[in-house]
């Protein structure tokens, strides 16, 4: 559950069109409610989860009505007796990025611009190889850039990879990719996307995440010229006590050709920002969170009551419970 107040005071309950979490102004609402069943065995596994909330309304708006409320629906089996090579198929959480759709799993209450504007889910099949505790490699084929149902008129599947290396328990280095079209065959424009992040425990109480995204898309079918967008997010977390922690974030997002974030007025989307999240966990499975976040751009990008502004400041509070 959450409450957000946007000091731009937009004219509708929807704060900004490029946010997909906690995206309501001056009202109490459910951001994300999930009920989940998982079965895990050495030779097979099944996950099924249903969800509801404003996140579903905003992020699944283009999906068929009967599929919007599916968060996960996948099954898999081991291809060897050591359970190090798996084949899975269905609807999955995305292999891209370090921020989950589940709020309590993230260091910050709201998602970074790079997370909110890259895939949260995909539908397809994948091979996962984990030869040891340090390495994981994944190859994927799926229906497209954050799609359950494939885009009408597109006959070409999308492909992806993930490579994760953990030299020790304190460091995670990850590289994820996407390759595929996000347009019908008649106007096919290929998209290529890379996500990199490093997560490191600096000490018992301090942790660091550094993420960087870069994507390209053909300007038109068979073009050798590409539009480029990129983003970064840097998050530092401090565990003050067993119950209290805070996280500070600096971020930047540049999509000057509006490939990922279209602006109705035609302004180029380029914005930097900072945020502070304070967490209180009275018990292990409950988290009370407060975040202040400020975004700034050179051009008027952020909705207000009657116009677009170059700045956006808002406060968000939430309570997250995991049982």
**CA-based shape:** globular
The ordered H/E elements are EEEEHEEHEEEEEEEEEEEEE
Q: Whole-number radius of gyration? A: 20 Å
Q: In percent terms, what proportion of residues is strand? A: over 45%
Structural write-up:
The structure is a single chain. The two termini are 15 Å apart. The protein has 323 residues and is mainly β. The protein is globular, with a radius of gyration of 20 Å. The model has no long low-confidence stretch (mean pLDDT 96). The longest helix has 6 residues, at 54-59. It has two helices and 19 strands. It has helices spanning 54-59, 113-116, and strands at 2-6, 27-29, 33-40, 44-52, 70-78, 85-93, 121-129, 135-142, 158-168, 171-181, 190-201, 206-218, 226-239, 244-255, 269-283, 286-297, 302-303, 308-309, 311-321. The strands form two sheets. It has a 17-stranded antiparallel sheet.
Task: From the structure above, extract its key features.
323 residues, mainly beta, 17-stranded antiparallel beta sheet, two-stranded antiparallel ribbon, globular
Topology, element by element:
Blueprint: E1 2-6, E2 27-29, E3 33-40, E4 44-52, H1 54-59, E5 70-78, E6 85-93, H2 113-116, E7 121-129, E8 135-142, E9 158-168, E10 171-181, E11 190-201, E12 206-218, E13 226-239, E14 244-255, E15 269-283, E16 286-297, E17 302-303, E18 308-309, E19 311-321
Antiparallel strand pairs: 1-2, 1-19, 3-4, 4-5, 5-6, 6-7, 7-8, 8-9, 9-10, 10-11, 11-12, 12-13, 13-14, 14-15, 15-16, 16-19, 17-18
């Amino acid at each position: 559950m959450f409450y957000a107040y946007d000091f731009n005071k937009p004219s509708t309950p929807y704060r900004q069109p490029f946010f997909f979490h906690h995206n309501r102004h001056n009202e109490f609402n459910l951001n994300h409610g999930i009920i989940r069943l998982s079965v895990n065995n050495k030779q097979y596994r099944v996950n099924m989860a249903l969800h509801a909330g404003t996140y579903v309304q905003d992020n699944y708006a283009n999906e068929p009505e009967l599929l919007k409320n599916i968060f996960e629906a996948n099954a898999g089996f081991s291809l060897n007796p050591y359970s190090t090579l798996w084949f899975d198929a269905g609807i999955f959480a995305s292999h891209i990025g370090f921020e989950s759709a589940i709020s309590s799993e993230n260091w910050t209450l709201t998602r970074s611009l790079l997370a909110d504007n890259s895939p949260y889910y995909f539908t397809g099949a994948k091979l996962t190889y984990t030869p040891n505790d340090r390495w994981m490699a994944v190859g994927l084929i799926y229906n497209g850039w954050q799609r359950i149902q494939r885009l009408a008129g597109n006959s070409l599947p999308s492909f992806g990879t993930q490579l994760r290396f953990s030299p020790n328990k304190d460091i995670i280095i990850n590289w994820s990719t996407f390759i595929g079209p996000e347009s019908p065959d008649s106007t096919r424009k290929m998209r290529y996307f890379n996500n990199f992040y490093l997560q490191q425990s600096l000490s018992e109480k301090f942790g660091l995440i550094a993420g960087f995204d870069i994507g390209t898309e053909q300007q038109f079918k068979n073009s050798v010229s590409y539009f480029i967008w990129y983003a970064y997010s840097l998050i530092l977390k401090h565990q003050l006590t067993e119950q209290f922690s805070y996280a500070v974030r600096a971020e930047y997002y540049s999509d000057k050709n509006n490939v990922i974030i279209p602006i109705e007025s035609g302004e180029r989307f380029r914005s930097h920002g900072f945020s502070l999240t304070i967490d209180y966990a009275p018990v292990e499975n409950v988290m009370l969170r407060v975040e202040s976040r400020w975004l700034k751009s050179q051009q008027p990008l952020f909705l207000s009551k009657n116009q677009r502004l170059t700045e956006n400041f808002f406060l968000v509070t939430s309570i997250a419970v995991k049982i």
